[in-house]
Design goal:
This is Ribosomal protein S18 acetylase RimI-like enzyme. GO terms for molecular function: acyltransferase activity, transferring groups other than amino-acyl groups. This protein folds into 2 domains: 108 residues, no CATH class; 138 residues, Aminopeptidase. The chain is built from 7 helices and 10 strands. The protein starts with 9 loop residues before the first helix and ends with a strand. The protein is 32% helix and 30% strand. With 257 residues, it is α+β, with helices and mostly antiparallel strands. The longest helix has 15 residues.
């Protein structure tokens, strides 16, 4: 399966890619032509450790540039990963296909119209600004490696647009759900939505998502966007309930994956 996009959707792809970079900033973001090379030594996230080609016409010296990128990734202890969006040149995709690379994950980028979304008028959960508290809760909810604590705090601290950190806790120090909402002018990014395993299918995800979207709309955001792995059926069902629809997809490539 290939990622295809009409010319008319490319401006939307460019805009959502740009706000995505700002909403989840890598520690290092360098350019090789139009390829953005994103690397973060403290966190293994693919979003923070990948090469993102951003111009369909930038097709020169592919082998040389891939080797340059591989060396940068090797210096960070990361496997070279390419993120394919509709902006990636067809020639590069064909080069990867014939050079032993393969896709190992597909992600949907989805949007919804906040102006038409039916949300409660009350704010059951107000956003916090205590990054340390949020990170501790998020690690507990997701059962993530505590060694990622400092890196996650640094990433959140580096976000330049307005950030809302939402937690659902019925009992102190017993978080059930968490989400980050990043408002960038009229766009609101939903990041890192997570629900504790023991609390799933109880409405916690919908509750915390509604709070984040309501907050963003009050702050004049008109469109919400998010990224979700294509195989995550429960998350897709939740987002469908809120009116999110697919804008485009991206895929991650690795050699020998």
């Amino acid at each position: 399966m290939h990622i295809e996009s009409s010319t008319g959707t490319l401006p939307l792809v460019r805009r959502l890619e740009a706000v995505g970079f700002r909403a989840w900033p890598a520690a290092s973001a360098q350019y090789d032509g139009s390829w953005q090379i994103r690397l973060t030594g403290g966190h293994p996230s693919k979003r923070l450790n990948s090469v993102v080609p951003l111009d369909p016409s930038d097709t020169g010296n592919l082998d040389i540039r891939l080797e340059r990128a591989r060396r940068k990734f090797e210096a960070y202890g990361r496997p070279l990963t390419i993120r394919e969006t509709p902006l990636m040149p067809l020639e590069l995709r064909e080069h990867l296909e014939t050079s032993g690379w393969s896709v190992f994950e597909e992600v949907l980028v989805m949007t919804c119209n906040l102006e038409k979304l039916d949300l409660p008028d009350t704010m059951d959960h107000l956003p916090g600004h205590d990054i340390g508290r949020f990170v501790e809760a998020y690690i507990k909810i997701t059962e993530a490696d505590p060694a990622l604590r400092a890196a996650l705090a640094e990433i959140i601290s580096s976000i330049k647009p307005t950030v809302g950190l939402f937690l659902k806790e019925e009992v102190e120090n017993d978080p059930q759900a968490a989400v980050i909402c990043v408002q960038d002018n009229d766009l609101a990014g939903i990041m890192s939505l997570a629900v504790a395993a023991a609390g799933r299918r109880q409405g916690h995800g919908a509750e915390i998502l509604a709070a984040a979207l309501r907050w963003a709309r009050v702050r004049s955001a008109r469109t919400a966007w998010l990224q979700v792995v294509a195989t995550n059926a429960p998350a897709l069902a939740l987002y469908d309930r809120f009116g999110f629809t697919e804008a485009y997809r991206h895929r991650y490539w690795r050699k020998g994956a």
